[in-house]
TrEMBL record:
Any one Gene Ontology BP term: base-excision repair, AP site formation
UniProt remark on cofactor binding: Binds 1 [4Fe-4S] cluster.
Organism ancestry: Bacteria, Thermotogati, Thermotogota, Thermotogae, Kosmotogales
Gene3D superfamilies reported for this sequence: Helix-hairpin-Helix base-excision DNA repair enzymes (C-terminal), Hypothetical protein, domain 2
Gene Ontology molecular functions: 4 iron, 4 sulfur cluster binding; class I DNA-(apurinic or apyrimidinic site) endonuclease activity; DNA binding; metal ion binding; oxidized pyrimidine nucleobase lesion DNA N-glycosylase activity
Top-level class of the enzyme under EC nomenclature: lyase
UniProtKB keywords: 4Fe-4S, DNA damage, DNA repair, DNA-binding, Endonuclease, Glycosidase, Hydrolase, Iron, Iron-sulfur, Lyase, Metal-binding, Nuclease
Gene responsible for this protein: nth
Binding site for [4Fe-4S] cluster: C185, C192, C195, C201
Entry's EC annotation: 4.2.99.18
Record field: catalytic activity: 2'-deoxyribonucleotide-(2'-deoxyribose 5'-phosphate)-2'-deoxyribonucleotide-DNA = a 3'-end 2'-deoxyribonucleotide-(2,3-dehydro-2,3-deoxyribose 5'-phosphate)-DNA + a 5'-end 5'-phospho-2'-deoxyribonucleoside-DNA + H(+)
Protein name: Endonuclease III
Organism: Mesotoga infera
Domain of life from the UniProt record: Bacteria
Amino acid sequence: MSEDCSPDAISCWMIENFKHDHGYREPFKVLISTILSQRTRDENTDEASRKLFSVFPTVESIAAAKPEELYGLIMRSGMYRQKAERIVNCARILLEKFDGRVPDTIEELTSIPGVGRKTANIVLNISFGKEALAVDTHVHRISNRLGWVKTKTPGETEFALMKIISPHLWGPVNGSMVEFGRQICRPVGPRCRDCAISRCCDYYGRISKEDIRQ
DNA sequence: AAAACGGGGGC
DNA sequence: GCCCCAGTTTT
């Protein structure tokens, strides 16, 4: 890692060293698996996605499924009924309102119940190649710890980061920052000893030794 | 702005 | 048992 602590340099370092990808590119699979990922660990998300798509591989088949039937399939992977209902409802809306296709604007995507700004931006970036920044708890926390922003909400963070990070890095840095947050810059007990960019970090100067986990 | 929601897993 | 998790919705 160079001496450069600029947001773009840190972003590139994260992109180089931390990968995080659910593996899907088809719009509807990205949308569905991202809904599955909401407030849920990746291991559970990946398992549930595989089970779901192995039985219901298309928008049409999901739309035709009974929510209970779909729930029975994914319930062992940390999922719950509301999410199964959201997914079936989402597939039906895609079919009825969007001609069976996933829309490619933030307004249309967030009009679907269960799809917020973060999920919509993931789809826009991964499936449609648009420059979008999906701010989740990891991105929000890490951006504030590093001192790049001083924000209270993910919405503020998204707006502030767009002025700090080069647009072509928005997509790639997203998953990398999440993985960095899972492995190193964790919500509690961050592994600052193992962190190669601690000298660039505001939080590292404030955190007490006993709060750092080996 | 804060609480509700939701269930498996780590501790 | 309690707290957390690639959030979203409701109060």
